[in-house]
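Q: Could you fold this chain for me?
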Amino acid sequence: MKVAFLIEHLDARRGGMERSSLEFLAETVARGVEITVVTQSAAPEFSLAPVHRLGTIGLGRRARYDNFVRNADMFLATSTWDVVHSVTPCLNCDLFQPRGGLVQEAINRTIATRRHWITQTLRRFGARLNGKYRLLLQLEKQLLTRKPPPLFAPLSRYVSRQAREIYSVPGECVREVFNGVTVSLPAESERRLIRERLRSELAIDQRALVAIFVAHNFRLKGLTHLIEALAEPNAASWQLLVAGKDSPRPCEHLARKFGVAARVHFLGRRSDVRDLSLASDAGVLPTYYDPCSRAVLEGLSLGLPYITTAFNGASDCLKNGENGFVIESPDSVGALAQALAALADANLRRKMSDNALTLRPFLSMRRHAEQIVALYEQIAARKGKAKSC
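A: Sure. Below is the predicted structure, expressed as structure tokens.
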């Protein structure tokens, strides 16, 4: 089977979408699928599959993306493909799987991070002026409203709802394929050693309650509200590890303002997030928007109970009080503090950790890739027959 895989950039250092794509490609190539990656740029060490690099041509982000899309379309026309799989808006594809979620919802939820109507209005106006956003919205709408649309494979029910509400994508064209991750689970004895070592390195008491927050966009992922929640009396026993490349200064100032600075540890970008998770007692991501957070799936796969919001597609696999908590909104600071208070109970955490570990097979990238390859086979089988999604 010959598949073209379209992605703007392929470098795990850029973020979760790129890292997920690399894990997906590894699993898919291992299943014998002949994949060619079509991209602007890829990490030089990438060698899993042939790469057609189009280059970052153009002045400005809109021009560069426009050139990527049009040059990719011209390249695809030079050969016959069983499946064209795109994880970013493009001119044409057989399978559309927006790993970063739908652009319109991402813009709406970014605006929601601003508390005052004036700053929300300014953000909305700025989005309208952003040339790349306008192009992405145009391409997204073109793809999902064409007759028939491509097969749409959202990573979660959350993204599936967006497609129905924003673009009225017919149900027969939607195949939800829940996201997956690749994360190893050490033996229990090794997990204990990792926990002890990291807590010692970070000067955190071995008996302390520690939560971990993993994200690169602190405002969008709700870190400010989490810091506020730590100041609530019922969450005062928790310390917080913050791993991500965003500037910590605004949140450090907020932590000082709320009197919790001594309990919040800003670690910057880390390559050992798995081990940091093993050194923690819970994960927290009170996000305004995430199509299906890798941080949550990785944490659960390591037996870490997680708290997140209904605006995270990863909440599909969370059950309140069983393996985590889902709060309605990141603005619900009281609910966030209450969930942390509940997780202070060691017996409940132990039970929730055991429940989380039972999800490992479902949360695996292997399962995710198997389901996508099954869709490839369906698409390839119907090509040349009646045109329908």
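A (continued): Residues 71 and 77 are 10 Å apart (CA to CA).
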